[in-house]
Specification:
Rossmann fold; homodimer; 4-stranded parallel beta sheet; 10 helices; globular; 2 domains
């Protein structure tokens, strides 16, 4: 395993201005971590790689859809560190036309693909584990065992540390955020932040805007990654727009507005949906003058998919 | 004119490792300036906007091709600051299929387009100037007058200052670069760096790898932007690959290698061509152990054009 390029930390926090309902919006530019288009999955991916090295594994197995930012970053890391890897994916057998920039990048990085239905994940994983072992490798699955459990601590570390970065920035700038907003999916990022907050005794509201999951599954995911089954979780499911990858006119308007006003790309699957949800949530529940930090969790390749699709209504 | 988001400076300098011919390669991540995908044209664009404000102008006119990073950044800045703008372009009348992500973004930002042949630029500019004045605006053309002269000082300022950033980094890290490499086109960036170097008494070699221009025109451009008609200029024309936007197998291999090894996107029009040229130049002329800084001048949208085209040979 050869050494890889570490992400460029800490990422900048930038003041954007007052939003319509009177809160002061700041943004943490995790999209600028500098490795493979950055994003939260860049920090998390490096945590997994360190964990993998510690456990003396040398073959990586990932799971996910073609929009996955995590898989793109992991594929790039594995390529750079010369680690063989396989992606188990429900999209693996689909047409080239249905590819995304993330899946094209996974392909370029030379991983193996294994197609599997959503209900056959455990069997597919067993198959990949076996094959890797037969070839003399020690495989590592990013979600742990074949039921997807066991590596929560590695994922947690990434945003546990990022929470520390935010605190340090607050101290340096003599400013305290009243709330932190982010796109929440599996709960890795929100769980990590909550774990960091607990350790540091922080008190801001950490609000996950769900990009897909319902209340119960969402909260459970966040608690699992926080490593605390009873921690209070603010997981907002009001802005899902019908499911993963779906979005409405407000999301489109938000993406357009943030690009035009600040030159910052958001995407309809994660960050645009979350930013739009945050603005609505603040209008309904926020108080004027609050200081709000939005975590830009990356996804630049998804922005270009969106631009390419012409669905922003501008072409 | 409303306030715009400033670029996030200073940008990080990152160590990449030793290249094949024994030099230590560092990279300054100007692609992470954080406004409209960053890049050298992000700093330069903001210099123009400040100059425009100083001169009490309120209408921006730009010129360039559909690959232009400068026009994308300027369009985004104008949109964000609510400044009307017009792009005079030899590509304006072309088919949508021939569009690039940069030109799509210019379109989204709502600028007017004026198509013109390469020999009718001065007439086209006069026409835009007149129309803007008739509408009650005070127009500003980024290259100055209708012959393209007069705004060199505004462009120079950007990389004059960036040179200062590099010096500061060197002092902090107790390390001196023996040479600085970058893609060189109009000469704005290289000219600015040389002007900063002269003021600071720096002695490293500043090597511009030409992306299009021949020796004489290239050197003249750099001197013009440096503001010194006799300054020695190292402008290398050996790696042009036949002209603007053209590239060879070595450029393709370089783009692939830099993405795979470091997760850093380069493009075939500017940065990939320059990085590939740098490696060849160092092999032929460098000495082992030299410390070399490559300036990543941005162009993320061009990377995605390239990926989309499938011309990298991986799809």
């Amino acid at each position: 395993m050869r050494q890889w390029s570490e992400p460029l930390k800490p990422t900048p926090i930038q003041y954007l201005g007052k939003c319509g309902s009177g809160q002061e919006i700041y943004i943490k530019r995790e999209d600028l971590l500098g490795f493979s288009f950055g994003g939260n999955k860049c920090r998390i991916g490096f945590s997994f790689l360190r964990d993998m090295e510690k456990k003396k594994c040398n073959y990586l197995i990932t799971y996910g859809r073609k929009e996955s930012n995590l898989n793109r970053v992991l594929a790039n890391m594995c390529r750079s560190a010369n680690i063989p890897f396989t992606v188990v994916s429900p999209d693996a057998g689909e047409e080239k036309e249905a590819s995304t920039f993330n899946s094209m990048l996974v392909g370029q990085m030379g991983g193996r693909y294994l197609s599997c239905g959503k209900t056959q994940v455990a069997e597919a994983l067993e198959q990949v584990f076996c094959r890797a072992r037969e070839e003399g490798f020690a495989p590592y699955y990013i979600y742990g065992d074949s039921r997807g459990l066991g590596n929560e601590a590695a994922a947690r570390e990434a945003y546990h540390d990022a929470y520390g970065e935010i605190r340090l920035w607050e101290e340096t700038h003599r400013l305290e955020f009243d709330s932190i907003f982010l796109a929440s999916g599996t709960g890795m990022t929100q769980g990590g932040l909550l774990s960091g907050q607990t350790e540091a005794g922080g008190r801001e509201r950490i609000v996950g805007i769900s990009v897909a999951r319902g209340q119960e599954a969402g909260e459970a995911g966040v608690r699992r990654y926080a490593g605390d089954a009873r921690i209070p979780v603010c997981f907002v499911t009001d802005y899902i727009c019908g499911g993963y990858g779906q979005y409405d006119e407000d999301v489109k308007r938000t993406i357009r507005m943030v690009m035009e006003d600040y030159g910052i790309p958001l995407d309809p699957v994660y960050t645009g949906k979350a930013y739009s949800g945050m603005l609505k949530w603040l209008k309904a529940h926020g108080s004027g003058g609050e200081k709000v930090l939005f975590i830009h969790t990356g996804g630049t390749p998804l922005y270009f998919d969106y631009l390419q699709s012409g669905k922003d209504g501008t072409n």
